[in-house]
Amino acid sequence: MKKISLLMASLAILVASCCNNNTNNYPKNVIYLIGDGMGFGAVSSLLLSQDSTTVFEFAPVIGFNETCSAKNYVTDSPAGGTALATGTRTNNGYLGVDPNGEQLTSILKKAQALGKKSGIVVNTTLTEATPGAFYAGVKKRSESYRIAEQFCESGVDVAIGAGLSAFINRPDSVDMTEVLINKGYNVYLDWKSVLKTDSKKFVGILSMSDVHRRNSTSKTAGAADGAEVCLAAKLAAQSANDSDTTRFSEPTVYLQKATAKALEVLEHDSPDGFFLMIESAIIDGYGHNNDSEGMIIEMKEFDQTLKMLVKYVENNPNTLLVVTADHETGGTGVSYKHYENGEKVPVQLSFSTKGHTGTVVPIFAYGAGAQEFAGIMKNTDIPVKIEKLINRK
Ligand SMILES: [Zn+2]
Predict the structure, then answer these.
(1) Which residue, of 82, 141, 185, 340, has the fewest CB within 10 Å?
(2) Which is nearest to 145 in space by CA: 162, 165, 119, 125?
């Protein structure tokens, strides 16, 4: 108990010192952390099941984010990512383009134009919808080979994720890893190489078992009626096998460590700062699969990454950290459960759908400029606010 109190006290000092004094300042660096499918139910599961206080609870600024797409209360991930990346609502299924199919400019590209270094870290494929919205433009998310081409033109300084197939198993037979190498990138295909590199321009394209933990037993991948089962739901349903456990792999800390690695690259020689987008993609999958236990574990891992980033903001007060979701998944709530003999029992989540919902999602903001993210806003307001902040120095 004493240990927990001490931890809470140190967290309180950490957050009070890092986040309350400068939330009106202009940021040099921006970190945009997106929990795919992370609605209030997912966040509640973490808050109620942690014995210690989470860094969510110390967020100095909290807001609500309305996640609709152009013509639907309920967005899919391509349109949700596009809104968060570009400030424009588009049709479900469209990625990085407006409802007329015109290419949009993402906040990552705008940050690059201001001389900022840029990076992408995901625990899914680099060509999935949410990261893709920051550099690509297609009307069909399934065209991952085209998204891979656009990734090679993205100009990011560092990217770490999975999804080699879109880069090498292509209709045009081009090996896009060679294209990246010719553009001056080091390309790594295993986690160990990513961890030990001191390259200041690299792309890590890892296996799925490197970037996401597996269950002890396989579950059923879910989707809303008539919808295709998405990659996140498939990943959330997969069980571990022998080849996963014999590989050098530490997927439960992957997101946190990959983020730290990307920060090393972005901090180096960056007089104008940097823009880093991070996606925790599989919260969405547990929502689709209506998997209570899986979602709670995933949120605890998310919290570890967030804790590291809040610490980063403490040490680098010219940094803005914005945390939100592209949409809610699962219609997730906390179920009625009576405490036993006065003792808490594990949180159990209930779900009302295997698809996404249009319920608003939370925003948590820390550091320079965080104050802008207080209150209720549309998904499209978020990149617009970031843009305004980084245009002022
Ligand atoms: Zn989804």
Answers:
(1) 340
(2) 165
